[in-house]
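We now fix the convention by which a protein and its fold are recorded. The integers have meaning only within a learned vocabulary of local backbone shapes. A complete example follows; check for yourself that the lines match position by position.
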Amino acid sequence: MRRTVFLLDLDGTLVDSVYQHVLAWQEALDDCGIDLSVWRIHRRMGMSGGLFLGALLRETGKPVETRDQVAHAKPDPDLFLAAAERLDADVADAVVVGDSVWDLLAARRARALGIGLLSGGYGREELERAGAYRVYEDPADLLLHLDEVGVRDPEDA
């Protein structure tokens, strides 16, 4: 019997921590003498650290040094593929819930159904363009609309 599994991005999706991350990055960059506006940092939240630093380098023209990065983080699908495998589920039966375009790009590349949440600061249209099948305000709003993503109560199956 096929079953639907939910793979949820944690930071910003289940825990509203996006702005704490933005401010922490801005403080760290300020300490390094790199002046970058909050909105520019915010638009990169949800990227892997390696992609974030690459984008930062392009914008500022200044080198930043970091430890070795995970080879394939979001927007590559590796994290979601591994999570589905660990749950012994087919990723094509998974619903990926995320709050950034990077989560949804990774979901699309994994062949999973992507659901966007507005809690990460991205707009509905941005999330839909990145691959969101549906977009909800937050996890509670998604829970109220599970029928819209084709999830049945196991007792009704």
Notes: The longest helix spans residues 18-31.
